[in-house]
């Protein structure tokens, strides 16, 4: 009676085996320069389907070196900015595989200890507005975003020892809406960590750098009405208000559009963000307790 179901299970198991074999074949093809570009494309498309791809990439001989070679090979195209769409797509496929490694619980720490994120910083430091460069920055931010989204203190400590905050701040001011969203997500995650909040509020210069960019973003949001960005901006301000020194400074420099009704229409259906904004204003009121 159950034979058809058994047969179906066997077919699915066989298909899964074939998919896994295909993954291994593609990983081996990364080592062949003639097959590498297509293998990068195919693996980047399959990275969501095979949960242990990160382990295969990390522990397969020579593969991480190949991915780093792909990244380093485009450095000469950054200055002067000559990166074209084909080269950008290829390196972004390599970055997508690095994001897979950064996102996996068993390879994240190894990824950090190898200081691989530093190889991405030259991409984040570019300023060209062309589509290939914008895609390159966005995909690089995605790798850092994958590192921070799991709230790992070791990740935050590593990032604070690098120049990730100024890089993100510049993108938050000048990038595309998508890039701004990922960059401010990274800054927000750093702020949510106690060490990160302390680091940013430790000196006036660091606090002022973050507060100035957030202020400029608020002014831009009055025109652009980008609600995803507004959510992150409000949550960054709210987290800053947890620090006594930052709270005192924000009483003087919080942008007026956050104090008045400028964004009420945008937030009318977003109760969570409205609560965050209300809490921020309570924290900054003169009667709030330190």
From TrEMBL:
InterPro entries membership: ARM-like, ARM-type_fold, CNOT9
Superkingdom: Eukaryota
Any one of the GO BP annotations: mRNA catabolic process
Pfam families in alphabetical order: Rcd1
GO cellular component: CCR4-NOT complex
Family designation: Belongs to the CNOT9 family.
Protein name: Cell differentiation protein rcd1
Organism expressing this protein natively: Syncephalastrum racemosum
């Amino acid at each position: 009676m159950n034979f058809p179901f058994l047969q179906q299970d066997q077919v699915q198991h066989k298909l899964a085996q074939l998919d896994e074999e295909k993954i291994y074949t593609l990983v081996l093809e990364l080592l062949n320069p003639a097959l590498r570009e297509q293998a990068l494309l195919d693996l980047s498309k399959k990275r969501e389907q095979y949960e242990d791809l990160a382990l295969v990439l990390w522990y397969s001989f020579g593969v991480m070196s190949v991915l780093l070679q792909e990244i380093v090979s485009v450095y000469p195209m950054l200055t002067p900015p000559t990166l074209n769409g084909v080269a950008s797509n290829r390196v972004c496929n390599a970055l997508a595989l690095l994001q897979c490694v950064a996102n996996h619980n068993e390879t994240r720490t190894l990824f950090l200890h190898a200081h691989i994120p530093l190889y991405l910083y030259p991409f984040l430091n570019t300023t060209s507005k062309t589509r290939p460069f914008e895609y390159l920055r966005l995909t690089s931010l995605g790798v850092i975003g994958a590192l921070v989204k799991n709230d790992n203190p070791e990740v935050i400590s590593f990032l604070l020892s690098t120049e990730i905050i100024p890089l993100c701040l510049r993108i938050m001011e000048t990038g595309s809406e998508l890039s701004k969203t990922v960059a401010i997500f990274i800054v927000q995650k750093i702020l949510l960590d106690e060490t990160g909040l302390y680091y940013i509020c430790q000196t006036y210069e660091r606090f002022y750098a973050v507060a100035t960019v957030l202020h400029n973003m608020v002014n831009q949001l009055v025109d652009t009405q980008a609600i995803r960005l507004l959510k992150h901006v409000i949550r960054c301000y709210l987290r800053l208000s947890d620090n006594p020194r930052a709270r005192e400074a924000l009483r003087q420099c919080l942008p007026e559009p956050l104090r008045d009704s400028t964004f009420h229409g945008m937030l009318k259906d977003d109760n969570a963000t409205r609560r965050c904004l209300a809490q921020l204003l309570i924290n900054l009121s003169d009667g709030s307790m330190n």
